[in-house]
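@channel sequence for tomorrow's demo:
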Amino acid sequence: MATQVLVRYGEIALKGKNRGQFEQQLLHNLKAAVTDFDGKVVRMHGRFMVTGPGEHGDKMIERLSRVFGVVSVSPVSETGLDLEDIKAKAAEITGQFSPGQKTFKVEARRSNKNFPYTSPEISRALGSHLQQLFPDLVVDLKQPAFKLAVEIGFDRAYLYRERTAGPGGLPVGISGRSLLLLSGGIDSPVAGWLAMKRGLFTEALHFHSFPFTSRRSQEKAVDLCRKLAAYSNKIPLHMISMTAIQKELKASCPENLGIILLRRMMYRLAEMVSGRRNLQALVTGENLGQVASQTLESIDVISRSTGMLVLRPLLGFDKREIIGLAEKIDTYETSVLPYEDCCTVFLPGSPVTKPRLDVVEKYEGLLDMESLLGGAIESLETKIVGRV
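structure tokens (generated this afternoon):
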């Protein structure tokens, strides 16, 4: 028996003349989410209907509920537009509820205004019919034990009792293309998730310092991308070795400027990768005042190393809020695994918190920047990371 899932969206409906573009992108993303289950997606009036084999129903619902742009999903039963048919289907569904659920509410939505009954009239008719069939049921409009919902379409009526929340936002890909600087800590995966929620197709760039960092730190980056791919189907992950650059910085520059100089190098490399991949913005997990390199002065000096737009979705979040989001999107447990990333290697005891651009540029002038950046970009490795 086939599973039918009704998919609702919210913000997209407010897009006016551009609404069709947003719906088309969401349609594309929904198809990608269920293609390996042989799922089929059809656009309806203000909704999408996804149909697939019954044995994959639960997995389809899980996938669809993680697609950005989706507000909620419900497995539905369908029937004709005759009110008596709708009553019969409502009775069938209600009979499946636990005997202990004594209070209920009927909610009706009528997209098809040619249907001869208004939404309140449909709700009253179904509620009265169910009370006649199930005398123990009591209507409770505020806190019912269960809700029975019916949506009247143009060809069919759809009834359901379950609603799984989606992430909302905009469909990935509608807002452009970005590159996430993925450190392996708690913050950057959350920043990437928030960027995708606003419709950005996101690739990831991870810097490593093998052999000063273990291979496991790179595997951790892959694992984090896999978590994020649950919301976007797949994520290209790029990896660059910073070992040679870090050695040169340690040998030639003041220790307290090491992190600032390193991050400026990272931004330059990220810009080079973005040029190759036609990416329009960088996304970072930077948060104002959280660590020494995230003071206003440090962020300013670091940002001046690139001409690209830099997005910082976490700028106004406190750590508790960031951890809460990391737990929600299932990246927290992976992020806190004790594998060092390259920013924790050679970490100075007293990093500068108010760097001066002229001083930073003076020491960069002592470096063979072309050789260092060229050697690093030659280490670039890319893999496509899909959802589990």
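heads up for whoever presents: The chain has a mean pLDDT of 92.
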